[in-house]
Design a protein that fits this description.
alpha+beta, three-stranded antiparallel sheet, two-stranded antiparallel sheet
Length: 80
């Protein structure tokens, strides 16, 4: 999942990887990609070159899904 805003055009992107095999946790929000339950691994935020290491576009998160990602990031990064 790309975490970086569209108006920050850098050559690298800040992302959180996704997984269909990870267990449920408060810091791993669940979304569906093509009908498959998928967890966003916010504890593994990293930077990538999108020209080399990015899969196909899978869609945009709803407001409630993005709120869950925001909350998980606050927890993992101790932003509160």
């Amino acid at each position: 999942m790309v975490l970086q805003p569209d108006d920050l055009p850098l050559s690298t992107w800040v992302i959180a990887p996704t997984s269909t095999g990870r267990r449920e946790a408060s810091f791993r929000p669940e979304i569906e990609i093509d009908g498959v339950p998928t967890r966003i691994l916010v504890q593994q935020v990293t930077v990538i070159d999108p020209q080399i290491r990015l899969g196909a576009f899978a869609g945009r998160l709803s407001a409630s899904e993005m709120a869950a990602v925001d909350e998980a990031l606050r927890l993992v990064l101790s932003l509160d």
